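Annex B. Sample input.
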Amino acid sequence: MRYSNFRLSLLLVCAVTPTGLFSQATVPSQATVMDEIVCKVNGEIVTRTELEKDRRDLEAYLRQQGLRGEKLDEAVKTQMADLLRQRIDDLLLVQKAKEMDVKVDTELNKQIAAIQSRSKIADPDKFQAYIREKSGTSYEDFRGELKNQMLRDRVISDEVGRKIQFKREELEAYYNAHQDEFQRDERVSLSHIFISTAGLDATGLAAAEKKARDLVARANKGENFAELATQNSDHAATAEQGGALPPMSKGDMDPVLEGAVWDKARGFVTDPIRTGADGGGLEILRVNEHQKAGLASFEEVQNEVQNKLFTPRYKQAMRAYLTKLRESAFLEIKPGYDDSGAAPNKDTSWVNPADLKPETINKAEVLAQSHRKHILGFIPVPGTNTANTGTSSSR
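Annex B, continued. Sample output.
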């Protein structure tokens, strides 16, 4: 689980004496501020500062869930053990994506463009300032973490998700054994596009009405309604979700809106409907599903059944895949820090290069092992008068 969408990378990184995760440490002078490397993963690192930021994000997230006092402290303590695991997971997945030569630049540019479209900020500099304000990080770091997330998602989809398959008989067996889970009240699932008319004069109102009618026509011709909502809706919160609204029961909606959609089939798109909500505007609704009261049919809930079976199997498969990546990785973890996803029997002992002792190898030893050409990086030449020198730094 993530508690922050975006993480900052450190520019100054240096190993110092381990002090234990999140413990208090003496702060050095400003001129000698250093960060502690706590984990090495195939040439990349996790630092103490990154883990401390994750702890703060975790605490903020739990506070949003209403936890306070001892309950908050206990929850932070319990979940903190997984923070290093998550960092290692993320690095391994991004590294795997690069190994697989996964390309996401086109998708990344589209997503950035969609965010900019929703922000309604055309100027590049102002848009980057907007990103800094909203994300709390630089535009470059925002874009980089967004790209890394896409890389991780692609690896997970290709290497884990797509390999989890279910036979129809398996799904039907679960449905038949758990019919109490599929009893339904009548309700409708909708998406919407809201075109604001607040403060518009007659010319602006006419333009808004034309825009709304054009969007309805485009939707009826088969364009993706969610994409139309993301790009055109003035209701920012739902636009980010493709215009999706929570399921509605009878009586939950404005009577005019309810009357326009309640008896309509899936895929129906309304004409623009005037509404006084949010200062006034035009509402376009699409019927995604109309669920009747009673036991839902297997066909209606097949995807839901699959999701119920998928989740536990996915978690198990995902953990097994990440364990496999750990087994083949170069991984060192400093004492005092624990990876809750550690691979069994994997040696992750921390080695400090400063503690390595040089080994002296004499000429006789080199000649005795001449078949191993990589020793000292050369092969002795017969007849030379090699002094008993040569050192090798190793573990």
